[in-house]
Input
Amino acid sequence: MNPAGTDTTHDAGKTVDFFVSYAGVDQAWAEWIADTLERAGRRVLLEAWDFVPGSNWPALVQAGLTTAGRLLAVLTPAYLASVGAAAQWQAIWAADMGGRGRRLIPVQVEPCEPGTLGLLGSLTWIDLTDLAGPGAAAAARARLLDGIRAAVTGQVRSVNPTPLPTRDTRDTRDVPAAADESERAARYPGRPPLVWGLPPELVRNPRFVGRASELAELRARLTGFDRAVPGPGSPVPGVRAQVVHGLGGVGKTELVVEFAYRYSHAYDLVWWIRGDKMTEVVAGLAALAAQLGLAHVEGDEAAAAAAAEALRAGRPHRRWLLVVDNAVIGNAVMGNNAGATATNPYLSRLLQAAETAEFGHLVITSRNPDWAGRATATEVAVLPRRDTIDLLRRHRAALEDAEAERLAAAVGDLPLAAEQAGAWLAASGMTVSDYLAALRVETRELLTRGKPDRYPFIVAAAWNLALDEIGPDEPAVVELLQLAGFFGPEPIPLDLFPALVVLGETNGELGESNGEGTLWSALSAACSSPLRWGDVVARLRALGLGKVEQGTITLHRLVQAVLRDRVPTSRHLEFRATVGWLMIRALPTAIQGNPAAWPRWAALLPHLQAQIEAEPSPADANAAGMLGLGNLAALYLQETGQLAAAVDLHTWVLARTEQVVGTDHPNTLVLRNNLALALQKAGRISEAIGLYERILARASRILESDDPNLGISRNNLASAYWAAGRIAEAVELLEQVVDDAGRIRGPDHRDTLLARSNLANAYQTAGRLAEAIRLHEEVLVDVVRVLGQEHLTTFLVRNNLASSYQASGRTTEALDLYEQVLTGREGVLGDNHPDTLLSRSNLADAYQALGRLPEAIDLYERVLSDARGVLGADHPHILITWNNLACAVAAAGRLAEAIDLYERVLADQRRVLGPDHRDTLTSQGNLANAYRAAGRTNADAADGADPADGADAADGAGD
Output
């Protein structure tokens, strides 16, 4: 309901008379209709008025459709194309199929093709499309109220009409017949602005895409105070100016141009001023003064002041929209370091006018986000991917999905860059692949191609203008931008850069002198002072070339490309070396079993990947350090369950390391082990075993017999044998590993403890349960003593002991241990870590063994739902869990469902693990048992399996 009335919020306890349904572009019409009805004493529900912070709009819509007496459909071509609008009017249509209640009332405000009306074409509507001239607003108001009155009463208006019926004791507030518009009534949208001041080149963009929510939100913020009329005699709160800020090329100007056209009918005056120079603001306001008839004022500055005062006073036009495009504040305007609140004095007058005017709206576009205390600033982000693809296809409709996706990603969803790319592809006939290749190596040159006709400059020029604003006395700002250009396009933690102070003290550890001191001398000097560092960051923020928030700076990938392109290619290696040096200093090396290190890795991993994608040369002095970071990054991915990415990165690091240090270097052997372990964890067991065997053969040849790496290689191969069901080979190797580890590493070393636990697992799988339990219990005591109760290794050993307890029938004891492990892993690793998911699955196994089938089934299903996104559908642990779920479902008597699950998991296990894998044979036996229980036989299902294998579904579920 309109806050201009006595009620300011929707009261769910009262029935709404009308629900106004409209497309977003027709908001001004919807507001005028709603305002007219509320002034006639009716209660109206309208999204633009009633969707406020904290409200549940879907619930409000449902309430409106349920309780409103009638739905008014604002009929336009846009409305007919709106899926959401169709759902609203169709709900009312279904409730009043014959139209006897006249609950659906179309109000046509724009001509529509008859063939597009569908069911709405069968209704009689109120037509407001043929009204023009000075009396159009009054005529439209009368026609609307007459039509509504006829729908409500079921009678055509009489010669002496009665007021529109009202409920309760509310007074009617019908507009006098002679009035065109009251002081506070919504402006009649059917007439254009009396004054239109957009430059001729800013015609409405036929290729404008998306931004519906941004446009609606901007309109809502501007009009929020217009409707907040507290009561008789109270002052009307002024509308604060709205600033639309963002990176050059992100579409700030296009957004506001579309806003001006879309909502032009809400204003008597629409005027556009360029704001990048004080003289432009003065000239624009002086031209407005002439348009307003302020001819008595002499001189541009006096005329500008008079125009600002006329806007403030609302004379001669109360409803106005003034746009200041590309406004600048702070030292870019004042010519000094006055700060972000120092502004052009004429811009200040406009801000004051917006603060006090009743219905005046000021919209400013700017690269600078720092308007605090002067206006409300809202950032314009890049387009959603679907809108970028839509924009590209408006230039080249035949783009295939994959091509469009790659191109949109390459331009970073930046609208102007997408416009240029689309225009150049259309004009040149260049293939997308060729364009992307050129964009990688000739970024700045390519970004000069394809300038759209309606844009005053290309995207690279927009950024160069900002870069050219940096004064010669600001070298630290230049250095920060240049260095940031060699990071990835994700947020860069600002706390990386103060380490440059150390680099400066070493007199240029990574780079040569630039002729004026060491590389990064200005930036490192700024970093040495928190105040100066703050000035540098604030200046970068004011330039609008990147986003500074929450201790990070983020640059668009194309801005980074332009920045890199401004650096001589011969110096790129120095810049990348500095980025690598900063990350080497910042990233913790203790990753495995250390979740506290993971957030830092999560923040910096994209930047490390950017360095990897740059293909560092083996000749790079920093190459070894970067490869070491690459290995740690792969281990981080492995630890956090990103297994496919871990395998890819391990593979890359191994290949580059072999180039640098050779194939037999100890580091190379370690990296091969890491790759094999990642393959094993990813479920690629056969590949892992083959690699482990080659590693052990090579290690035995080149390493000393007491080298710890030899024991690690044996342990890893034994683990893979065990996972593949080759138990005898695993036991033999592990017994040797335990002996060697105790002799070389000592009995309390983590590797020794893990080797003993692995041997106990192998004993259990080999059926030697008593030995397994004894060894697990001994290891747990030692692990708790050495590492503590909450260490990840302690969780692992406790879980393995629980598995042995369960296998021996001590299920209650196993359940207690599983619950301890799950609680610990959830607290340390989080809910979706692979180890946490495995603990949850093991707990479900214990529930099942104790006959708590509903709990087991529910937990298995939760694990499968969560784990598929983490591990992938073909991971061995996923397949084991499917098998165990089938066992629980069968135990619950749901045999048909269980058989279906068994058949699917068996097919997957044969494909992924092979027909002879232990897990495959277990599922095969379980399926045979289910067939027999259902009275069916299937020799193929039972072939090669002992039906008893199905009796212990949890065998393969331990860590």
Observations:
- DSSP finds 41 helices and 14 strands in the chain.
- The radius of gyration is 36 Å.
- The mean pLDDT is 81.
- The CA atoms of residues 655 and 758 lie 30 Å apart.
